[in-house]
Amino acid sequence: MTISASSAVAASRALTRLVRDDRGRLLSALVARLKDFQLAEDALQDAMVSAVVHWGRNGLPSSPSGWLLQVAFRKAIDRIRRQATAGRSGQDLELFASLAGEEALDIPDERLRLIFTCCHPAIEPKSQVALTLRTLGGLSTQQIAAAFLDKDAAMGQRLSRAKAKIAAAGIPFSVPDQDQWAERLEAVLTVIYLIFNAGYSAGPQSGVDLAEEALFLCRLLNSLTPEDAEVEGCLALLMLSHARRHARKGPSGAAVPLALQDRTLWVRAEIAEGVLLLERALRRRQIGPFQIKAAIAACHSDGETSDWPQIARLYDELLAFEPTAVVRLNRGVAVAEAGDLAGGLAAVLALETELSAYQPFHAACAELLKRAGRHHDAVRSYERAIAMAASEEDRLFLSSSLELLLQQQAV
Amino acid sequence: MKYMLLIYSDPANEPVYGTPEFGKMMEGYFKLNEKMQAEGAMLSGEGLKEAETSTTLRVRGGKVETMDGPFAETKEHLGGYYLIDVPDLDAALAYAVQIPSAEYGTVEIRPVMDYNPAP
Predict the structure, then answer these.
(1) Is the confidence at residue B45, as pLDDT, over 80?
(2) What range(s) does the DUF6596 domain occupy (chain A) (predicted)?
(3) Are B89 and A170 an interchain contact pair (Cβ–Cβ within 8 Å)?
(4) Which of A107, A90, A174, A160 is nearest to A130 (CA)?
């Protein structure tokens, strides 16, 4: 039998779209019933291979997702039967067989459980990120590897190690209890935020925009956990930051700091939506670090200029949740921007020992020292910041700032 | 699933006998023991004598090498363990966090290998 090229293309296009939208949902439904991450993934893969052939020949079924789920169950049963020593009881097989036989399968949404499993603290942070993108975002191993500048094989190994650990260590496929909720949710939001930041600094790469992925994941989480102030706060933070994406690089490719960005390039509708979401979150009176960070982002975006005194106060609040040197650095910068240059600079310089390996520290010192007229020290900080810059955009921006300073001195 | 909770600590950081901290630690262990018993999670658990009492042995090329002291030269030593049977890792972590030594030492949670005998 020959399958015409056009129907093959149509079927595989339909499958790609479906997998993009529904992979997480299908996978979570499979994991929930099979209680085996790897088996679920393999079975879904098998079902997708079948789909290309069947759909190419017979056209799309009336419920493509239901079709995939049914076939995946059947494929899982095949796999279990082949592994005679797998120790599955006959009862299990009967149960799965009855599931596979159901006519129109109603696909339960188990993605919240899937998110918490992927972001379990017993899994290494980088693997949490990779696993979340693979299972819920539906990205391929190759796409994830490219986004994090890793080799395909290394990323593949990382993913299989993480899945093996889930099975071997007994990481549950469940939503955490109330007493664990806040802590575990923060771990999930941190993963989403990491994905966003990776995308924000890299921009779209090899067809993958990690910032968009993070927004997709955060919207998904928000729909699965309605009325959670921190989820709303995180989504607001991502929206407010993403709204500035067209302004963050100048024509030369250099990074443009917030204060110098062309505000006409900001997507006003997205900022308004982010602010609205943040206001809804704040009304719930369950303050948390993501809401505070979103509030800081809103202070930058909402008016004609950034509201620095308010930003400094918000960093004070954030310190209660995250008493880190990086937050103190940002607070120091805000204090300086709000008018107290000497006080802000002193607070920043006091962090020297803790943050000497942190590039943004040197960039902040350079700017504040320049403003304070300490040009000699500023030049040294610029040189360090340039040497440590992680991206070409940052390097370009800092180099041109340093050049400007040296020209002023020469005059 | 069965898990071994391996309790490591540096004797220098442990509460000293007779101090209120020592009393608090003992009370914590006592309560945890009771709890794990009552909830049917506990399979076994023992405290070990200090690491200086340890003897290490290996056989190399048919020759037995016996040495004084623990296996690894580290500050934190294995001081005791619990073997528990609970549904999943989260349940194991929930007990581990109640081990008083976790506040100054380290607890490793290790799943026990299951050979899964055929039904």
Answers:
(1) yes
(2) 184-281
(3) yes
(4) A160
pLDDT band at residue A1 using 50, 70 and 90 as cut-offs? very low
How far is the alpha carbon of B76 from chain A, nearest alpha carbon, in Å?
Answer: 21
- Determine whether the interchain pair A174/B88 forms a contact, defined as Cβ–Cβ distance below 8 Å: yes
Domain locations in chain B as residue ranges: 2-54+62-111
Residue B119 is nearest to which of A89, A172, A177, comparing CB atoms? A89
Q: The pTM is what?
A: 0.83
A83 touches B at CB < 8 Å = no
Domain definitions of chain A by residue range: 5-109, 307-351, 356-411
Which of B2, B5, B88, B90 is most worth mutating to test chain A (most A CB atoms within 10 A of its CB)? Answer: B90
Instruction: Please name the CATH architecture into which domain B2-54+62-111 falls.
Output: 2-Layer Sandwich (3.30)
Instruction: Give chain B's contact residues with A (Cβ, < 8 Å).
Output: 1, 3, 87-93, 109, 111, 116-119
pLDDT at A114 over 90: yes
For A284-342, what is each residue's pLDDT tens digit?
999 999 999 999 999 998 778 899 999 999 999 999 999 999 999 999 999 999 999 99
What mean pLDDT do residues A22-38 have? 88
Write the CA distances from A398 to A347, A360, A387, B59, B109, integer angstroms.
22, 11, 10, 61, 47
* Closest C-alpha to A396, from A265, A250, A199, A244: A250
Q: For residue B85, which residues of chain A lie inside 8 Å, CB to CB?
A: none
Burial (Cβ within 10 Å: 0-12, 13-18, ≥19) of residue A61:
middle
> Which chain A residue has its CA at the smallest distance from B91's CA?
A172
The radius of gyration computed from the CA coordinates of chain B, to the nearest angstrom, equals 17
ipTM above 0.85, yes or no: no
CA A152 to chain CA mean position, Å: 20
